[in-house]
Write a structure and sequence with these properties.
Blueprint: E1 2-3, E2 8-9, H1 14-39, H2 52-65, H3 71-90, H4 95-118, H5 121-146, E3 167-170, E4 173-175, H6 183-201, H7 208-228, H8 231-249, H9 252-275, H10 277-297, H11 300-318, H12 340-345, H13 360-394, H14 402-417, H15 423-441
Antiparallel strand pairs: 1-2, 3-4
Helix pairs in contact: 1-2, 1-15, 2-4, 3-4, 3-13, 4-15, 5-6, 5-7, 6-7, 6-8, 6-14, 6-15, 7-9, 7-10, 8-14, 9-10, 10-11, 11-13, 13-14, 13-15, 14-15
């Protein structure tokens, strides 16, 4: 069978099948929230693990071909097996919850190393363009959600929750979730989309059709930032935009084209603001949300970034957040216990929305204990993405590949801040991690000079 759009022959080789598996994983990541909210609300919980069989397939193929012999994949698999054993001996001893926790670092995360090994430059290019097309769809949906009441069908929550999927807004407007189950999924998708957009802006070769497509998606992204009502998306935009400015300034050949595209996007945004009442409302609401948050938490840099984010890393090892009120055991409460699924099966106190802890690093310590949890955080969640980032800026083959730099920054941020017990967060960790590795490996097949925009 030949899938013409992706140019993959599923009968040709296992590598092609793995590429096809990645596409399924990626597409399910984008639509699984919609399936849970709009299509199959009665069986929405099934979609929490809908991508796991694909990851298992990639893991088995990786073991078959020896793609998992290097330090980091061996670390993730080994630490997962060790944590599973300690969970069944000293932790909650619930096999289902333990397996649900094992799938994070023992199945999904190792799968990214397999895909990072086999994805080629052409595969990455197709994923970039596909992501930008999905951005167009996502932005249209979130604008409709933003301007619709929470009782509207498009704002229905997972499992058919009639209270809606929007979250904590201002002036009667809520943060939309797009095609995802919750707003955090939309923020991670926007991060990936911006990395793809900026890499296209700074690409060496651009034809008129490509420039037009970049302008359209750039304007679309700008609209999505304001209609998302998300401070996280604004912060992400700032991080990658600063990186874009530095990279553009160092590339004289591409600098003028990049400035032209960005200026056009900004001008289009100003015109939209001037003549669109909906955009004015979205802009003013976003500004007010920053003001309200500053009054409650302090300014954005000091309150949100320094205390909430960076402070959580220190607190995990000094005074970890722990909603149980119990002393954290040496090997933690057990893998999977901090997830909503695990908390429900174990009948833990569900008066707290976030289970054992809200802060991700504290949650890892609560589940795995200070020793195993500390290894996961320091080696797996910090050193691994750091290694990829430094490779992206020092490797001669990737030095001029701007996408490689953008995507490793994105992956580093997701690794440091996202809760991997949430399936959507885990999915974006895997996708951005695989794209980071593939970009660094800089793989190529014969006859790969394909014009995606033709």
């Amino acid at each position: 069978m030949k899938i013409k759009i992706l140019n993959i022959n599923t009968k040709r080789s296992d590598k092609d099948k793995l590429v096809f598996a990645f596409w399924i994983y990626f597409i399910l990541l984008f639509i699984e929230g919609g399936l849970r909210k709009w299509t199959f609300p009665e069986i929405s919980n099934i979609f929490l693990v809908i991508r796991d069989p694909i990851a298992i397939y990639a893991l088995l193929m990786g073991l078959k071909y020896g793609y998992l012999k290097k330090f980091f994949p061996v670390f993730f698999i080994s630490i997962s097996i060790l944590a599973f054993i300690t969970t069944m001996i000293y932790g909650h001893k619930n096999l289902i919850v333990a397996l649900y926790g094992f799938r994070i670092y023992g199945i999904n995360v190792p799968a990214l190393f397999v895909w990072g090994r086999i994805l080629t430059k052409t595969d990455i290019k197709k994923i970039i363009v596909a992501t930008l097309y999905l951005l167009l769809i996502s932005t249209l949906i979130l604008i409709i959600q933003y301007n619709s009441p929470q009782s509207a069908f498009i704002n229905i929550g997972t499992g058919g929750d009639e209270e809606g999927s929007g979250f904590q807004g201002v002036n009667g407007y809520f943060r939309p979730s797009g095609t995802f189950s919750f707003t955090a999924g939309l923020a991670l998708f926007e991060f990936l989309a911006l990395a793809c957009l900026l890499s296209e802006i700074t690409t060496k070769e651009s034809n008129k059709r490509q420039i037009f497509f970049i302008l359209v998606t750039g304007i679309t992204y700008l609209l999505s930032v304001f209609f998302s009502l998300s401070r996280t998306i604004v912060a992400q935009t700032g991080i990658l935009t600063l990186t874009f400015i530095i990279l553009s300034a160092s590339n004289r050949k591409r600098f003028l084209t990049s400035i032209f595209i960005i200026s056009t996007i900004i001008i289009a945004g100003y015109i939209t603001y001037k003549y669109s009442d909906d955009f004015k409302i979205a802009y003013n609401n976003l500004i007010q949300r920053f003001d309200d948050a500053s009054n409650n938490e302090g300014n954005f840099i000091n309150g949100s970034i320094r205390h909430r984010i960076f402070g959580s890393y220190i607190r995990a090892f000094t005074e970890p957040q722990n909603f149980t009120g119990k002393i954290i055991p040496d090997f933690g409460f057990g893998m999977g216990a901090g997830s909503k699924v695990g908390s429900k099966i174990l009948n833990l106190d569900m008066s707290y929305t976030f289970g054992l802890a809200e802060e991700e690093w504290s949650l890892v310590v609560c589940e795995y204990g200070f020793f195993i949890g500390g290894l996961i955080l320091i080696i797996g969640r910090f050193l691994f993405p750091c290694t990829l980032f430094f490779k992206s800026i020092t490797n001669k083959k990737t030095r001029n590949d701007n996408f490689c730099i953008y995507i490793t920054i994105t992956f580093f941020s997701i690794s440091m801040t996202s809760g991997l017990s949430v399936p959507t967060h885990l999915g974006f960790y895997v996708v951005t991690g695989a794209l980071s590795l593939a970009s660094i490996n800089n793989n190529s097949r014969k006859n790969e000079n394909i014009d995606i925009y033709s």
